[in-house]
Amino acid sequence: MMPNRKHTSRKQRKNTGMLFNAEIAGSERLRALILISLLGLEAVLLIIIYFFYRTEYISLFNTHIAIYAILIFTLIMILYESSVHYFIGKEMALFSHHRSAFGYLNSFSEITLLTILFIFIVEYSEQTVILQSPAPLTYFLFIVLSTLRLNFRLSAFSGGLAAVEYVAVSIYYSTVFSDIPVDRFHPDLTGMQYLGQGVILLISGIAAGFVADLIKKKMLTSLASINEKNEVIDLFGQQISPQIADSILEKKDELTGTRKYVCVMFLDIRNFTPFVEKHTPEEVVTYLNNLFSFMIDSVQRYDGVINQFLGDGFMATFGAPVSKGNIPKKAVLAAVEIIERVRQANTAGNIPKTTIGIGLHYGEAVIGNIGSSVRKQYSITGNVVIIASRIEQLNKLWHSQLIISQEVFNEIDANVKSMFVPQKPAKIKGINRPVLLYIFNEEIEISKIRKQ
């Protein structure tokens, strides 16, 4: 079993990795759209502020270069982020393969473009007031959104790069313009104050990294859970309902092999061979699909699993892989519902005249996955399967549609027991002792059964 588990583990990790890469690509594209929106909003708001405070603005900069530069920067960033969004959508595989390198390059480009903006404004205005204004807070926009990359190092890198560039530019230009009177750039900031702001940028990047790391762990856990559910769906196909699939995930150890008490149902469609001989293959398939559609629905309604289709019938199991409530009672109610729905379909003329035979037996079975790493099947093995099959065959002899064993009868409620008529002990092939069996009384009103 170990090689199979290792293969499954590798497959699960690969699937989880693919899902994670897809999520990161989506997050990076979303990040680009958010930046486009926020930078556009920032430009609009700055224009509004400039309109109301033009006098104060001129007194600080003595030129309109700052507002023009900010608007040009915003346009450049919008074009840049638009190209990032387009590139990731167009080259998803390339992005996933070089995701880390792309993240560092993108962070460096965004933060450095902002720093170049500040350098440009300082150079042309010959004042460092832009470095003391709210404008450097734009660094935090890139730092906060770096969490969407779900990479601690990238967030810390963004914060560290912003801190280094801001501090370096601020200290350099405060030294270059140290001979300019203080009232020309209100207020003056010392190197210590610039360093303090740089430390805040760095700490912000580290904090964003911790948030990104936490989100990443939660996302990987969620993706692993989704992958496990997909594996269950792959394993069981359409045999089980979504509710049972969720329950299997809670007790997935049982898939590797265990003993459990189950109720096995064998169902057979009577006179199927003569029907096949008189009808086309297409008509046969349509007939079976019409029958099995509501039969499967009844089985799943009572938490059963269709293990095998047998051409003119099927084998179903109640109590494995999920055990809920009175298992034999659920199997009995599912069987009775199937009989009633066949009767209704016959009466309505939706199917050719059809009768069925169902056998139920309750006992211990060995359940689990059998096969190789390439192909597995969830199997139920043991005498309970053989006996259920032999009981079903007795329907032909007794001209009945549902027979249950003594083991099933002993487990059901008294009001459900009243639906059955005991028979004389019968001999079943493969069992040395006679067994006590019960036939369903088909004359009972179905409305009474549905109240059980």
UniProtKB/TrEMBL annotation:
**What's its membrane topology?**
Multi-pass membrane protein
**Keywords for the protein's UniProt record, in alphabetical order:** Cell membrane, Membrane, Transmembrane, Transmembrane helix
> Where does it localize?
Cell membrane
Where's the Guanylate cyclase domain?
263-392
Gene Ontology MF, one: adenylate cyclase activity
Provide a GO CC annotation, any one.
plasma membrane
- Pfam families linked: Guanylate_cyc (PF00211)
Transmembrane domains' residue ranges:
32-53, 65-89, 101-122, 128-148, 155-174, 194-215
Query: What's a BP term from Gene Ontology annotated to this protein?
Result: cAMP biosynthetic process
Record-linked PANTHER family = ADENYLATE CYCLASE, TERMINAL-DIFFERENTIATION SPECIFIC-RELATED, BLL5647 PROTEIN
Q: What is this protein called?
A: Adenylate/guanylate cyclase domain-containing protein
